[in-house]
Amino acid sequence: MAYRAVIFDLGGVVLSSPIDAFREYERREGLPHRFISEIIVNSGDHGAWSQLERGEITLEEFATAFEAECMAAGGEVRAGDMFEVLRGSGSACPEMLTAIGKIKDAGLKTAALTNNWVADDGVGMQDRVPVLGGLFDTIIESSIVGLRKPDPAIYELVCAQLDVEPTAAIFLDDLGVNLKPARAMGMTTIKVADPLEAIAELEAALGFPLGEG
Predict the structure, then answer these.
(1) Domain at 5-16+91-206, CATH homologous superfamily
(2) What is the pLDDT of residue 129?
C-alpha cells in the first residue's frame, strides 16, 4: 500500500497522556481510580468535557458544570487544580518526534488530530507547545473546529485538509474508541500503548526506518 499521509493524536501519542495526569490528580485527592475518566465517558457528548473540547463553553463554565457532575457522582473535583496537573504533563516523546521528521523527509504529509480545549490565552497547540512547530502540515484542534473524536466528521476534515483519501492514510491514537471510525472509513490504524512498539508497527506499514541514523 502506498500511503500518502500519517495522522497523529497528540496526548498519549506524541505528548504524554492526559490520562496519566488524571490518575495523578485522583491519587493526590484520594478519589477512586479512573473516577475522572468515568465521569467524562458517562457524561457522553452532552457532558461538560465534550462541550469544552468542542469549544462550546469557556473554562469557567466548564469548571462549574464539571465539578457539579463529579459531585453528583460522589467525588469532589476542583477543576482549576486538575488543569494545573494537566498543564504540567505535556512532555514530548523524542522517538515519536524523530519518526515524524523521517516521515516528512520521505515526502509524506503529516497531521495532528487532537481533542483539546482553548487555552486561557486563546493560543493554539503549535504556539503553546513549541516542539510541535514545523512537524505537521495541519493541526486539527477539536476546540477550534467544533468537532471532536470519535465524530466521523473530524476524520473527514483532516483528510480534506491533507487532500488524501482515507485509504491512503495511517492514524495513530491511544484510545480504541477514536480508532474505530477511522478504520471504518478505510484508514490503517495503530493503537499506541507503548510508543516504541507503535513506531515499529508504523515502520512496518510504511516500509522505511523511522529512527535516528
Answers:
(1) HAD superfamily/HAD-like (3.40.50.1000)
(2) 72
